[in-house]
Amino acid sequence: MSGHRTHGLRKMERYKLDRFWCLNLFQGEGELHMEGKIYPFKEGYAGITWPGVDLAYKFNGKTIKTWAHFIPNKSEGGSDAHIPIMQDLGPRFEGLKAELQTLSSLYRMHPVRAVAKLWDILWQLVPSDTQVNTNQPHRHPIVARAMDEIDMHISESISVEALADELEISQTHLNRLFKAATGVTTGKYIRTRRMETACHLLTHTTMPIKQIAYHVGIPDTQHFNKLIRQYYKQPPTHLRSL
Which UniProt keywords apply (predicted)? Predict the structure, then answer.
């Protein structure tokens, strides 16, 4: 699971991941407080965190995080590789951010390839390692771009009209392409992605429910609770306890 989120409305955010490691690429400045240590970050930094520890992010203004959750799987005969908790990516940042932003759409079509691409991104964060090329997904480019835009702006209001304008096509054509590729309209796809992201955060993080609602673009908590019940036949608190 990967995504894109704007932070900074709350100066400090606290939560804990229960199973997943997390890779974050930062556009903004602040500090990560973890296990009694402080790790400053700036524009163009990458950070790694692991499950079971209390995380506190202090933001110095608006900060955008492009992130991916993952579970390391060391195969027999494999070797460990050290990735710094925080590092300045310099000129590599934009390229790695673009690669990370494609993971969600790639995973929907080729999950094994998406996992391989994530490991490639992680290896690029190991000091002195070299870059490896990966294949790109085979889906209509307009649909792929639309899916990436939706995932990158999931915490914002997304209208089909504005999305079509951004892609320079008509709403009718965009819906036709989405229907052919996914079996649902663009609007239905957006709503489903919000719910999938919310369910993931409810079941795999300790992020407060109100904060999750804001993260998936549904700041009205009552409306968020109603939608979760409609999609998953149980309230958010029950999903959290699974």
Answer: DNA-binding, Transcription, Transcription regulation
**90 DSSP assignment:** G
Residue 151 CA to residue 103 CA, distance in Å, equals 10
Over residues 27-81, the pLDDT tens digits come to 999 999 999 999 999 999 999 999 999 999 999 999 999 999 888 765 444 445 6
Please name each of the domains of the chain with its CATH number: 1-129 (2.60.120.280), 139-242 (1.10.10.60)
Whole-angstrom distance, CA of residue 242 vs CA of residue 238: 7
Which helix (DSSP H) or strand (DSSP E) does residue 68 occupy? strand 63-70
155: closest CA among 49, 66, 22, 32?
66
Q: Are 36 and 57 in contact (CB under 8 A)?
A: no
- The three-class DSSP label of residue 40 is strand
| 3-class DSSP assignment, residue 23 | strand
- Six-digit token string for 83: 């990735």
| pTM score of the predicted model | 0.60
